[in-house]
C-alpha cells in the first residue's frame, strides 16, 4: 500500500479514474460510430445502385421517346414497347450504366412469370461467377411502378447492390421488371471507409476534449470535498482525543496510559494481520476503553485502596456506561467492540456479559492483553511496576483462561520491543507516535491518503 499527500492523491486518483472512464467511453463511442458508419456504407451503396437503375430507366425513356418521335412521323399513334427498347440498350455491347461511383456488372429483364426476357453481364469482371451466384440465390422481386427493392452484399471486400424495379410503358402500365447487380467502385468504397475513420476519430476526439475540459472542474470540486472530509475527520479525532483526555484527567491525571495501550494494541493488531477497518476500531476503542468511568462516583473511582464488593459492582458499570457514550456517535460507535468487551475473559467469567472465546471481538481480546501488560509494567500509588519477565510470565500463565492464546503468541513476538520502547514512558514522544498511528490508519482525514489495497 502506498501513501500520497492529499492533493497528490486526489490528482492521481482522479486522473486515473477519469482516464479509465474516458478510455471506456471513447471506445464505446468509437465502436458505435464505427458500427453506424459501417452501416452507412451499405445505405450509400444502395443509394448508388438506385441511382444507377434510375439512370438506366432514364436512358430507356429517352430511347423510347426518340423512337416514338421517329416512328410517329411514319405511323401515327404507334406505341413503342419499353421492353424492346431495354433489349436494344442491353444489346449494344457496352455496359449500359457506368458511373464514377461504380457500374452494373449484371442486368436482367424478366416478366411476371419469372421468364428472363433479356440479360447482360460484364464478362471481364473478376468476381462475375460469385456475383451470378449471389443474384441467382435471390428470388425475383416485383416492385410497384416507380418503386424498387435493393439488397447489399459484400463479396471479396467489394460492395454489390442487387436492385429490382418495374419497367413501365408510356401510360404507366408495368410491362416487365428489371434487376441489376451494381458494383460499387473501389475508389468510392475507400472514400466511404475514410469517412468512417474520420467520423470515428472525430467522435473520440470530442470525448477526449470534453474529458479534458471537465478535469479541472472535477479536480477542484473533488479537492474541496476532500478538504471538507479532512476537516470533518479532524473534528472526530479531536473528539476522540478530548474524551480520552477527560478520562485520563479524572482517573490518573495523565494521558500516557491511553497512549501506551493504544500503541501496544496497534502493534499486536499488525502482528495478527488485522484489516484497516479493524485497526481503526482498535485505535478508537483502545483510546476510549475507560470512557464509562466518567460516570463513576469519585469516592469509588479515586479510592486509593482496594474496592469492596459493592464498590466493585458499581465500578463494573463503567463498561455499559462507556458503551452508551460511544454509541451516541456514529463515528465512535464501532469502538464498542473494545469499550464494551475489554473485561471479558477468553474462557468466560468476565463482565458484563460473561461470554468467551471468539464470541469476544478480536479487538477486545487484543486490548485485554495490552491493558494488563501496561497495568503490570506501570507505577501506581499502590504498587511498583513489575519487570518484563515477571509480566510476560503472568500473561502466559493466563493464556487460554483470561487471554486468547493466539493474541499472546503474537504479542510475545513484539513484547520485548514494546516494553523497551514504551513501558513506563510518559511524554510528548508517546503523543507523537500515536499521531503517526492515527495518520496511518485514519489517513483520509490527515495529510495523506492511501491508494491501492485497503484504501
Structure report:
The radius of gyration is 45 Å and the shape is rod-shaped. The protein folds into two domains: 2-193; 252-451, Orthogonal Bundle (Hypothetical protein af1432), CATH 1.10.3210.10. The strands form two sheets. Strands 2, 3, 4, 5, 6 and 7 form a six-stranded antiparallel β-sheet that branches. Mean pLDDT is 80; it is low at 73-77 and 444-455. The chain has helices at residues 6-72, 82-90, 128-136, 186-251, 256-271, 276-287, 298-301, 309-316, 318-327, 336-339, 362-377, 388-397, 405-422, 428-441; strands at 2-5, 98-99, 102-110, 116-121, 148-155, 158-168, 174-184, 448-451. Strand 3 (102-110) and strand 4 (116-121) form a beta hairpin. It is an alpha+beta fold and 455 residues long. 30% of the residues are buried.
Topology:
Layout: E1 2-5, H1 6-72, H2 82-90, E2 98-99, E3 102-110, E4 116-121, H3 128-136, E5 148-155, E6 158-168, E7 174-184, H4 186-251, H5 256-271, H6 276-287, H7 298-301, H8 309-316, H9 318-327, H10 336-339, H11 362-377, H12 388-397, H13 405-422, H14 428-441, E8 448-451
Antiparallel strand pairs: 1-8, 2-3, 3-4, 3-7, 5-6, 6-7
Helix pairs in contact: 1-2, 1-4, 5-6, 5-11, 5-13, 5-14, 6-11, 11-12, 11-13, 12-13
Amino acid at each position: 500500500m502506498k501513501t500520497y499527500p492529499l492533493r497528490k492523491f486526489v490528482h492521481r486518483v482522479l486522473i486515473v479514474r477519469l482516464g479509465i472512464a474516458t478510455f471506456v467511453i471513447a471506445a464505446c463511442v468509437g465502436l458505435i460510430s464505427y458500427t453506424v458508419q459501417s452501416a452507412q456504407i451499405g445505405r450509400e451503396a444502395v443509394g448508388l445502385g438506385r441511382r444507377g437503375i434510375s439512370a438506366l430507366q432514364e436512358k430507356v425513356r429517352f430511347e423510347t421517346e426518340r423512337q416514338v418521335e421517329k416512328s410517329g412521323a411514319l405511323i401515327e399513334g404507334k406505341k413503342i414497347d419499353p421492353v424492346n427498347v431495354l433489349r436494344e440498350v442491353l444489346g449494344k455491347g457496352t455496359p449500359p450504366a457506368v458511373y464514377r461511383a461504380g457500374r452494373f456488372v449484371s442486368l436482367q429483364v424478366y416478366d411476371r412469370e419469372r421468364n428472363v426476357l433479356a440479360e447482360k453481364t460484364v464478362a471481364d469482371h473478376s468476381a462475375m461467377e460469385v456475383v451470378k451466384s449471389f443474384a441467382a440465390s435471390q428470388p425475383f422481386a416485383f416492385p410497384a411502378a416507380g418503386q424498387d427493392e435493393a439488397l447489399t452484399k459484400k463479396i471479396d471486400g467489394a460492395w454489390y447492390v442487387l436492385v429490382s424495379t418495374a419497367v413501365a410503358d408510356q401510360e404507366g402500365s408495368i410491362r416487365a421488371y428489371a434487376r441489376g447487380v451494381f458494383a460499387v467502385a473501389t475508389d468510392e468504397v475507400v472514400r466511404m471507409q475514410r469517412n468512417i475513420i474520420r467520423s470515428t476519430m472525430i467522435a473520440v476526439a470530442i470525448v477526449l476534449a470534453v474529458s479534458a475540459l471537465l478535469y479541472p472542474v472535477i479536480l477542484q470540486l473533488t479537492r474541496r470535498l476532500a478538504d471538507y472530509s479532512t476537516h470533518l475527520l479532524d473534528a472526530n479525532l479531536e473528539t476522540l482525543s478530548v474524551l480520552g483526555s477527560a478520562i485520563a484527567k479524572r482517573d490518573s491525571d495523565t494521558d500516557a496510559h491511553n497512549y501506551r495501550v493504544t500503541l501496544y494494541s496497534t502493534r499486536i493488531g499488525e502482528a495478527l494481520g488485522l484489516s484497516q477497518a479493524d485497526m481503526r476500531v482498535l485505535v478508537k476503542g483502545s483510546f476510549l476503553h475507560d470512557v464509562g468511568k466518567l460516570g463513576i462516583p469519585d469516592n469509588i473511582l479515586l479510592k486509593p485502596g482496594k474496592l469492596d464488593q459493592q464498590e466493585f459492582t458499581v465500578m463494573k458499570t463503567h463498561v455499559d456506561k462507556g458503551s452508551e457514550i460511544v454509541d451516541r456517535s456514529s463515528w465512535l460507535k464501532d469502538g464498542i467492540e473494545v469499550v464494551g468487551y475489554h473485561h471479558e475473559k477468553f474462557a468466560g467469567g468476565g463482565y458484563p456479559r460473561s461470554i468467551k472465546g471468539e464470541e469476544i471481538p478480536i479487538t477486545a481480546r487484543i486490548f485485554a492483553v495490552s491493558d494488563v501488560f501496561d497495568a503490570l509494567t506501570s507505577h501506581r500509588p499502590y504498587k511498583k511496576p513489575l519487570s518484563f519477565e515477571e509480566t510476560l510470565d503472568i500473561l502466559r500463565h493466563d493464556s487460554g483462561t483470561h487471554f486468547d492464546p493466539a493474541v499472546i503468541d503474537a504479542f510475545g513476538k513484539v513484547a520485548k520491543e514494546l516494553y523497551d520502547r514504551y513501558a513506563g514512558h510518559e511524554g510528548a514522544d508517546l503523543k507523537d507516535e500515536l499521531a503517526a498511528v492515527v495518520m496511518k490508519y485514519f489517513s483520509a482525514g490527515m495529510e495523506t491518503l492511501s491508494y491501492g489495497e485497503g484504501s
